[in-house]
Write a structure and sequence with these properties.
- The chain has eleven helices and no strands.
- With 235 residues, it is mostly helical.
- The protein folds into two domains: 120 residues, Rna Polymerase Sigma Factor, Chain: A; 89 residues, Orthogonal Bundle (Arc Repressor Mutant, subunit A), CATH 1.10.10.10.
- The protein is globular, with a radius of gyration of 19 Å.
């Protein structure tokens, strides 16, 4: 059976069923899991790193980590939560390693959720909104830039809650912070966006951070190529 045929045959399978096939030695089955979760996981990495290429690299490395540790998944939480946590950890580690920002993103419970937001946290965009502001593509770009401008800890919570529609409990589990902190940061993120976008945000939210087929295929091919190398099975 070809990889494409296998994907089609397993479209309706549960995550646990697919995981069992992967653990039984069917590496190709892992592709189905990647295609199921590529979009939300890429968005999560992108919300932290704010760079398309860096987000792709982080996601590929996260998949490899997940594959090599798939035997540790016990199903106590959803696979989406487990994978998201891996992506968050990998993305934050990359920020610290490359020292891209003067301040490292804070996702832990030690951060004060009531700490005043610096005035420069939501800097105005230099480009004026075009006259034809209702154009979907332009609005999507505006939404992405405004979300990028959110403070890091607020931005990640907003992406998981508003864009990926995770529950408060799921978001807290992914980020390792209290549910109360999730609620506070989400409320303040929405307030900042509302002030920045007013009513415009409602028109383009669903299409923010589009995940095209080429990027999906590129990530899958990169991971599968690595997995095809016998050395990738090392623990």
């Amino acid at each position: 059976m070809t990889a494409a045929a296998a994907r089609q045959a397993w479209q309706g399978a549960s995550d646990l069923d697919v995981i069992r096939r992967v653990l039984d030695g069917e590496k190709d089955a892992f592709e189905l899991l990647m295609r199921r979760y590529n979009r939300p996981l890429y968005r999560t990495a992108r919300s932290i790193l704010r760079d398309d290429a860096d987000a792709e690299d982080a996601l590929q490395e996260s998949y490899l980590l997940a594959y090599r540790n798939l035997h540790l998944f016990r199903g106590e939480s959803s696979l989406a939560t487990w994978l998201t946590r891996i992506v968050v950890n990998e993305s934050v580690a990359r920020l610290r390693k490359t020292a891209r920002r003067a301040q490292v993103i804070q996702l832990d419970a030690n951060a004060d959720p009531d700490e005043p937001v610096p005035e420069q946290a939501m800097t105005p965009m230099t480009a004026e909104l075009p006259e034809q502001s209702t154009a979907r593509a332009e609005m999507r770009g505006l939404i992405e830039r405004k979300i990028d401008a959110l403070p890091e800890s607020f931005r990640v919570v907003f992406m998981l809650r508003a864009i990926e529609e995770m529950t408060v409990e799921e978001t807290a589990a992914c980020l390792g912070i209290p549910e109360a902190t999730v609620r506070t940061r989400y409320f303040r993120a929405k307030s900042l966006l509302r002030e920045s976008l007013s009513r415009e945000i409602d028109f383009a939210l669903e299409e923010a951070f589009a995940f095209d087929g080429a990027r999906c295929d590129r990530i899958v091919e990169g991971v599968m190529q690595t997995l095809s190398d016998p050395s990738s099975d090392r623990t």
